[in-house]
Amino acid sequence: MSESTSQEDPKPAQENGKEDKERKQEAIEVKEPIENSQSVPDSSALDTSNNVAEETTDEIKSQELNMEGQPKISTGSIKDSNIGVSKNIVVRKPAKVIFNLDQTVLNSKLEQPWNKNLFERVEARAQAMQQKIIDKDNLKKELEKKAEKKLPKDNLAKEWFNTENMTLSARAYLLDKILPTLVPGVEKMLMQVEKKKLLPEVDIPTKFDPINYLGEYLMRNNPYYIKDSGMSGYQRVMRDVTEDLKIHVPNTICNRVSKMKENIKQKREQREHINEVKVKVANTRKQALQEQFDEWILDPKGMIPMVVIQNVLHEFFQNPDFQLESCCKQLDIADSMEPRLNKMEFIEYISSHIAAFKSEMFEELLKHLCHGADEFREVIKTDMRRQMFAELFLHCDHGKVGLLDRQRTLALLEMFYDQSSKMLRSLLRNPRQWPFIEFEEIDLPELWGDMDNQKHIYEDFDKVLLETNTSLSEKHASKAQIKLLENSEDQHKRGKHRKSTLPPTSPEQERGTTAEQEPNRISTKEQKQFRESTGEKSVTGQGTHTGSTPEQGSSRELIPEQRPRRESIAEQGSHRESVIEQGPRRESVTEQGQRRGSAAEQRTRRDSVIEEPQEGSTAEPEPPGETIPEKQQDIDSTSQSGKGSILGERKKSREAIPFECIEIPPEEERTQKQAYEEELFVCSELQEQIPISRRKDHFSETTKKEVQKDESCEPKSSKIEGKSWSGELLTYNWKMKYAKCEDEEQANLIYGNSRFTDLHSIIRNIQSYKEVKGRSAFNGVSFNLLQFVQLLETFVGEDAPLSVSETLTSFFKRGYVETKEEKMSALEQARQNASQVRRGLLLEALFQKWDSDGSGFLNLKEVDELLYTYKEGMEKESMRKAKLHIQLPKPQPGCEVRLSSKQFQKYIELVVSELRGNADHVLESIVEFLMNTLERSHIESLRNGARQKWLHQIQHAAETSGVSLEPVYTETFKALTQDAEAHGNKKISAHISLLEENLLLPDRGNVLLRNVACTLDDAPFVLNRVLYRDMKGISFTVVDKGKPIHVPQVQHHGNIFFWNDSRKKNNQNGSFLALPLQDAYMRIFGVMAVDTLRDPRKINIFLPHEIRFYQGVANVFSTAYHYVHSREHILHVVITGIGWLYNITPSITAITTYFTEPSPEQDSDYVLRNMMVTGPLGLTEIHRNPPTIFRKTCIFRDFLFKCTDSSEVVLASVYGENHIVIPLRERTGEALGVLDFNIGKSRMLLYREFKDLQKMMKVIQAACFEILGELSGEIKKNYILEIENVGEVQRAGVLFFRIMLKELQESLQLLTPMDFVSLLLYDYNPPAELKSPPDNKSQELEANAKLVHDILIGVILFFHPELESSSDLGNWDKCKLYVNRDLVENICAFDPTAKHVEVNVQLIDEYIRDHSRVEVWKFGNVVIEYLYHWAHICLALIELNKKCNSAITPPLPTNTDSYVYAKMPGGSLLGKC
Description:
Blueprint: H1 2-6, H2 10-16, H3 19-24, H4 31-43, H5 51-100, H6 103-111, H7 114-150, H8 168-195, H9 210-220, H10 233-248, H11 253-293, E1 304-305, H12 306-317, H13 325-328, E2 340-341, H14 343-353, H15 359-396, E3 404-405, H16 406-419, H17 422-425, H18 444-449, H19 461-486, H20 488-493, H21 496-499, H22 507-517, H23 524-534, H24 569-574, H25 576-582, H26 589-592, H27 611-615, H28 630-641, H29 647-656, H30 672-685, H31 692-695, H32 701-708, H33 734-738, H34 742-751, H35 757-769, E4 782-783, H36 785-796, H37 802-815, H38 820-850, E5 858-859, H39 860-867, H40 876-882, E6 898-899, H41 901-914, H42 919-933, H43 938-959, H44 966-984, E7 989-997, E8 1007-1014, H45 1019-1022, E9 1026-1027, H46 1035-1041, E10 1045-1047, E11 1072-1078, E12 1084-1091, H47 1104-1142, E13 1150-1158, E14 1166-1174, E15 1180-1183, E16 1188-1189, H48 1199-1206, E17 1210-1214, E18 1217-1225, E19 1231-1238, H49 1247-1272, H50 1288-1309, H51 1313-1320, H52 1336-1359, H53 1372-1375, H54 1381-1389, H55 1401-1408, H56 1413-1419, H57 1422-1442, E20 1459-1462
Antiparallel strand pairs: 1-2, 3-4, 5-6, 7-8, 7-12, 8-9, 10-11, 11-12, 13-14, 13-19, 14-15, 14-16, 15-20, 17-18, 18-19
Helix pairs in contact: 5-6, 5-7, 8-9, 8-10, 10-11, 11-14, 11-15, 12-15, 15-36, 15-37, 34-35, 34-38, 35-38, 38-41, 38-42, 40-41, 41-42, 43-44, 43-47, 44-47, 47-49, 47-50, 49-50, 50-54, 50-57, 52-55, 52-57
């Protein structure tokens, strides 16, 4: 302690001459130097020339002496008290440390007990010193204030202040060093002169010399040696002036300090200002959030579930336009509905996540919250509806079997649909059409040749849309002409700039003006070019290019609600690429939700389409013929098209884009009810750009007044159609309450049965290893609760009020009646299903107990030997009969028949069927007998449990890999190394090599083995190396023989290839094991090799149980490998299907593909992985690390999980966008993934597009069934086209077109000769002398004839390429002779990928591609429809065949890519709309 102190204090002690005394007083020796050091600069400024100053100085000194004597006592007391405290702590240390610290901390404390004591004493002294300095400074300030009162300032010294740069430095120096002493000296000298009266007696000699006096004064008052006693008022002002001047002297300390102080002051003021602004902004935001809270529907306690707000924020943060993905990490979304938020908690919770938001972002958030509040109303309404349907299911399920008949349910829906009014049917969906009926229930002619628009899922959808668009177009054109005539005089007076803003005089001019204002549209010039090329005209007189239909006319431009500026369907079809370049970008979340409205601008209550007349609204619908003033129309149109945007944007859009609200022309003979129904149809069928919620508002006076009152912020109702919310969302915990898991129930029953105690732990592991739970399998015969509820929800739709659901529920309760026989049959079926599940659990557990080494198979001979001892061999003959009914697998090398788990279960069930007695009782007896007969030690049981876990992790890695093999390789090597260390005490190396076709060096063998994965230490020597047949090694022997080969000592074998050349020969000791990798058809596709070369022991062979486990690893790896590749092939097929569909269905804005995966969270069913997204260009973005979607984050987008849960098609609308979500089913009927078709603002696709979507999905589903069936070995591979023999990847790339080609060939075989004869009559050649302009009818006949000729000639050229050089090609009379019986036969037997096929693709393309998909659909002939698709598919396959190695590649990203863009060849081959 003394050393550290003496090192700091000697210099100040020597300066004051008090070294010995201050060392004796520890409490003062540190403080005194600081005190003296502070007094030195002060003394230089003191002055004793004034008497008053001297008195003041004496007073200051006396008070300073009194002040200095006091702290000594306090310091000493502080020191003593601290010493006492330190002693107490030392005494208490052992007790405290013993209970609270570990031994190392205790030892360190006991070794240095003085450390804490020293620290406390020094800290106390430092605090005392600091306090003394503060007190002294405060006292000095008070004394200075007193001195200023007694000595007034002399402002004459301010004249010294001058910041002139030339004299600034000199002036500052003089004021600082000389003048403070010189001026008082001169003053003293002048006072002496006046005192001696020398001024009047100038000539009288005197001894007084003023110069000497002044010099003596200066010497006596040298500031460096004399401590002045005070300062005069003049000196005080001079000191202030000096300090001010020093600030202005550049490159000085004072100048820099002043600048620093100024910057600090500015920053402090800026921070204070920012803090004030932040506080104001925070208060304003809190007030806005407080008002926004009232928009939500609250529970009875006035609270909102926190998970709902979290979902809204999650949706907002996920918007790519805002780039707020980092904020999602801070959201810990709750797993239940229990946490609730009141108003203050709501404000605080949202404020905590948006503290850094700018004002613009906060405004967007407010809009999104308002949309979320409206969406939450829809969620609650949907929840109420689903609860009704769930209770209906429980009511109709009289036998409580959990199933209802599907055909009876559909029949009741059809009956209810037929008995409904036309107005109600416009809201309901036709139950006779897809998705209510399955693809297998639709005949091929109906699927491919049905072009009847009346069979749409919405009744008269295309017809109503056509009438609406036509009437709107005509009305708009007529009003534009009237307005032009009225303003004709004004037009002459205005300049060119004003003329450019007038309404166009014709539809063509109008489209041109619209194209200028909205760059996303196609120019009039391009439209004219397409019109000239085809010669077609639209019904309304507005010319559209080839392929446009009346229902796709340009009237869509005239709808006021078309703010998103999407093209019309026809324009989108013909100009998909140009549209993409011009940017029909998808709207942001806030823009997409325009149909919901914002907090301040859209607070009008939304009434359902048929809810208002039922509730007896006093406002009658406005007669359609009544005109609206222009100002009123402008306000109404603007409010409808600009909902969700701020007022400034609304005004700008109204000024920039002039439009009018168009009224439907009246019909005098219609009644008011008919007019109202048509009005409802119009509102519901303006589907392309009018959000769903707006369809619920019809064009009545009351509605328009409500629209005008948007800014009045009328609060929304807290009820939904008069019903209050209970505060619970049953659909959030839907599966917990209603989902029935049969295997879990049967497992619980087995747990309670003491007969199978040895199998309980194995069954628990099996249940825990079951990955994707909770999905319902679609079987086409019956519905479970989830499927029934989803079907009824799809039938009713989202626009129908709850009263419709109540009516449907009452109808079902009356109509759903089961006979006694049906009830008994359903109960028997449920009992059989439960029995089957129970059998599967018992036999699977028995198989795992028997297979203690985890090899994945059992020897049939061992199974028979044990079975034949059942009942002492009395049932031996009956058991032998079971082998006559089962197809046993082929014997392995060595005549060993091995049974897999499924084969073992099937074999035992056949054995049970041959025995007498109840099948369930007999099976349980056999299982119990085998379980007790099998003797397994405790060590074997533990080893079996560990190995089953490791094998499960390999399969789990495949199912959660996001279609990637890297996790599978990792878990495979992990299982091998862990087992070798735990059960073999070995250090192993392993690698996996796959067979490839040897294209570069075929002379070294047709195939080669490439090492695709290995353990980490061996990567530099093994990875990506190739083994040829002419090289050393036993791997090809394993491939040829199909059985494992074990080399105990590789150094003595002579035919082992060592990948590491640097290893010395005397160090090449160890064992080597090579195992074949086989698929479901027992074909070998690779080799897995394991060795012990890295093990330090020279002899370390593999034991039999290790070899069997490695065989099990190879088996599970093969399953996982093909699982990943099957998903990859499915993605390949989906991409091909999307490429075919996208160019002929322009209403689809995006397609997203999801796969189901096991959830990473415990007690959760499954998650969805966003595998790829197809955007506007038709390019598919495939993610390498697919984003994971959890159920708890999809309260507003739960349609994805509804589709997966029920394995049914879901039609949903979220944030103003409509979705068609279609499941991809496994062969068991469960959903392995979903396809989400986003159709934007459209209510539904046109019937043509709807049918093309069905064709695409049917083919994709058929391809999925084929791929999965081949994976499991249930079906044999079917090679139809020659290109399928090239390879698996190439086969997956053409599988979509192959299945579609076969369906078209089957459809063509069902045609009659008369169907072709009718086409030969299309021969329209008008006389040459007819010069009158052709009418519309003649143009249509000419276009149809050209279509028929071109399609047929294009098809004929596939089989008669010699016509290319013949003159018969241009003569239709000769070409139609080729349309005979042989044509259909040739079409059905044609393989476009065959080697002998040689066709002129370019010539055929010239005939086919000029005709759009819409033109073929309008023609309406089944033969042309078939041949058109057939020709395009053949052209696509021919192109793929030419580029099979480069064009058909796996669509997954590489290791270095985060995503890739894929667009399959052939996707753009089909003619556009």
